[in-house]
């Protein structure tokens, strides 16, 4: 089922769905309707797409209490411990405002402030993701965001997945709405009678959510337009084939378009992993999804050396990279492009997905070449501070005038020249 290919025959290109014209037209229609009609449009589209007639969009306190009753204590405890780890990791990313003073009296600096209000999209559909609440809400809280509004599609019973609600409850996120899809993105962007507009929208969703986020970018900020999940495992002969296969399948079960790739210079490992993937696939509850992913986007790439393997890795720029080699620290310096890097046999990708602390919202489809995991900086904005002294203005004013006139901006030049004429000695 999973292909074994030589490096020379392995293509790093992957076609990822970016939406059809019909899908984009649908999204534009939804955005316009919600902008003009507010709650009425959101409720109408929820009934049309989710088959749910909403009496009220906002989750009530009683619904939170019911969700808490449904969740096993050990799950709630795991959520709390994961939250502690994630908060500790992200707190180390926090930066402070700063000022520097020159002998001339000029002060320069940067004022760093949190965004005021952020919208968090938590997907539903084939699976519910409490971990998405943790990974998106905690960095915003660490940054100091005061208002977090969460939207998530209701299930067939009109309720939110209890694991998602309990996680929000544990984090103190009480503003939760039973709304998903492009209509949720529209509500967060434009605001409705019930939902106040936000400054930024974060969190993954289906193609309609992705297209909606792309359309509203500029009116609000967004984290990224995420594609299907992906993993690359770079492994040598010391790797356990069962571990490698299990980690590949951990991503394949996400989505039929997820990509799982093993890169190795050991043909024996390649064959052993192929057999393990077949064996483990047969036992997976989400077998159909994982099987389609492995068939269409999975591969075992056999290279001549680990150095050549690293070239393949850097071309792929994967969302998740596992270095399952004898001495992973010897290779980490050669990794140029990856969203998250997992070192050694015990750093299985789900450790990062759920518990260790680093964020699991990562760049996909090669965008790790130029972008980073979601982090505290994504919820901060910076303002420059300039307090220029008279001494520096007199010393540098003519240079500023020269630059302004070079650009043909005479009013700029005169704003400085006027001060030179009045203040000059």
From TrEMBL:
Keywords: Amino-acid biosynthesis, Histidine biosynthesis, Metal-binding, NAD, Oxidoreductase, Zinc. PROSITE patterns: HISOL_DEHYDROGENASE. Substrate binds at residues 229, 251, 254, 320, 353, 407, 412. The active site is at 319 (proton acceptor), 320 (proton acceptor). The keyword Glycosyltransferase does not apply. Its cofactor is Zn(2+). Transmembrane segments: none annotated. Binds 1 zinc ion per subunit. It catalyses: L-histidinol + 2 NAD(+) + H2O = L-histidine + 2 NADH + 3 H(+). Pathway: Amino-acid biosynthesis; L-histidine biosynthesis; L-histidine from 5-phospho-alpha-D-ribose 1-diphosphate: step 9/9. InterPro entries: Ald_DH/histidinol_DH (IPR016161), Histidinol_DH_CS (IPR001692), Histidinol_DH_monofunct (IPR022695), Hstdl_DH (IPR012131). GO terms for molecular function: histidinol dehydrogenase activity. CDD domains: Histidinol_dh. Zn(2+) binds at residues 251, 254, 353, 412. Its EC number is 1.1.1.23. Belongs to the histidinol dehydrogenase family. HAMAP family: HisD. Catalyzes the sequential NAD-dependent oxidations of L-histidinol to L-histidinaldehyde and then to L-histidine. This is Histidinol dehydrogenase. It comes from Aneurinibacillus thermoaerophilus. The gene is hisD.
